[in-house]
Amino acid sequence: MAGKKERLAGKSRPLLLRIPSNLLESLKIEAAKDDASVNSFITTVLKKYISWGRYQERLGFMPLHKSMVKTMLEKLTPEEIEEVGKMQKDQTIRDFLLFESGYNLKSFIQWIRLRCRVLGFDLRIKEEFEPDYTIFVMIHHDMGENWSLYYKGMFSAVLQELLPPDEKAYDQIIFETNRTSFAMHIVGLKVDDDMKEIMSVD
């Protein structure tokens, strides 16, 4: 059954749509900007809606310009920014549970992938094997160091929930923040093969 579902997921089917002429012209213009066909552009738009857009209202998201976010963060101290990030722990967990079935690190990583894709941030995930098995996650963004501090607070709080220190699922977590990127190293992590597959795909 699973194999059949996978085959169907990879197939494409023709669909006849009737759309207003002005909408079609707008789609052609936007597709040309991406050097894509109208068909592939529409598919991309629909995929983005299915993976994220349809959940936005339910999750309580609203349009907010990056410049406004930067301005608000500038009013806070680094410690306050990290605390704001930590306060988002429960909401973040509720968010990724909406998209993923598991309450675990794998689901959190999948949520990070989705969020970076929606926000247009570059994401790099890789495995490091020396001296200990480590999962490395780096997010490149254009939001300034305060945004990296926000991520540090949020990620640290979520990981403490998903990987309680007393369970010894890892040796240590190292965070790196700067003006253009946020990175974390989960050192000495004990994961199964399924988790490794998720982590090693860029």
UniProtKB/TrEMBL annotation:
InterPro entries: Ribbon_hlx_hlx (IPR010985). It comes from the Archaea. This is Ribonucleotide reductase N-terminal. It comes from Candidatus Nitrososphaera evergladensis SR1. GO terms for biological process: regulation of DNA-templated transcription.
